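Recap slide: AraC effector-binding domain-containing protein, sequence and predicted structure.
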Amino acid sequence: METIVKNIEVKTLPRTTLAFHGGAGAYQKDRSLYQRHRQELFAWADSKGLLAGGDFQYLILYRDSPEVARYGASEMSLCLTVPAETQTEEPIGKTTLDLGEYAVCECELSPRDFPKVWEWIFGEWLSEHGFRPIAGAPYFERYPEAPAGELFRVDFCVPVEGD
């Protein structure tokens, strides 16, 4: 994991407002659906002027348990951070991520390595460091920048509590 993981630590993340595409799906099995929903989300945000300053982050939010996600059947929501006062309309919705403690695993990796990182975080790192995921709380991938070729910079974020 050393070549993929750049850093991992528990951080307090702020309450964050998200706009999300309302048509959540199991995107691992349907790339065209993922692309369509992502394009619709970004087109909506652009029409509202939310992309102009570059002051946003793209997230993929997982609401299913990690056990479900391991088999590619997870329901995911494609999200953008937005100001709290942002108004949305179908198919775009709005939600918040609560303030809390998160294991944040900063990585640089190719798409084929994503499952390995999730497996390592949930299967090894959390328990080895005295943490457990908060049951029912969403975990997510945060993309601090656009991909550079085949490599993605991604923060894998899991809400945690001590054992």
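The chain has one domain: 5-144.
The chain has a mean pLDDT of 87.
(End of recap.)
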